[in-house]
Amino acid sequence: MQSIVLVLVLLAGLVMLPFGLPGLWVMAGAVLIDAALPGHVAGLWLGVALAVVAGLAEVVEFVLAGRFARRYGGSRRAGWGAIIGSLVGAVVGVPVPAVGSMVGAFVGAFAGALVAEFTLRARLGPAARVATGALLGRVVAVAMKVGVGCAVIVWVVLALILGKSS
After folding, report:
1. Looking at the predicted structure, is the pLDDT value of residue 28 above 50?
2. Which residues, at least 6 apart from 154, have a Cβ–Cβ distance to it below 8 Å?
3. Which of 81, 111, 125, 158 is 20 to 30 A from 92, comparing alpha carbons?
């Protein structure tokens, strides 16, 4: 029964990811909590490894917006604008139920890159192209996190099946 609950929580974490919610942290936390319970089905090292993976995915998520802004012709300033805009947008969007942080991060990446690039070049066309790149970077970041979430579920389920999670 405990393994079924663990897998259900992992699936709930996966569903959270496209909405900009901390699904990977929920997944890692569930495995760590399970490891602390008597009769655990997942081990402590698996939980620690998942927490490290979640942290790395968070870093990559915000860096991707900046990388895509640069790939679309943006300056270093636009890259940082996209990263900072993503963070600010995600925080500002939190009060909006379900999708606020995701939409906020998308809008923030676009606006941050747009403002940063526009203040450098003072031309809206190129700045909008760079901002579009930052927005695409956020979309790719969300897809990456969903992919990582799927890999986490496979990893945990295989560890449960093989009994090698301790």
Report:
1. yes
2. none
3. 125
- pLDDT tens readout for residues 122-166: 778 888 888 888 888 888 888 999 999 999 899 888 888 877 544
Q: Which of 7, 15, 30, 26 is nearest to 99 (CA)?
A: 15
Give the pLDDT of residue 165. Answer: 46
What is the dihedral angle through the alpha carbons of 50, 106, 66, 113, rounded to the nearest 10 degrees? -160
The burial of 87, by beta-carbon neighbours within 10 Å (0-12 exposed, 13-18 middle, 19 or more buried), is given as middle
Q: Which two three-digit tokens encode residue 137? A: 């970077």
Report CA-CA distances (Å) from 49 to 16, 114, 141.
Answer: 20, 37, 20
Element (DSSP H or E) covering residue 97: none
pTM summary value: 0.74
Residue 110 identity: F
Record the tokens describing residue 48, joined without a space: 């620690």
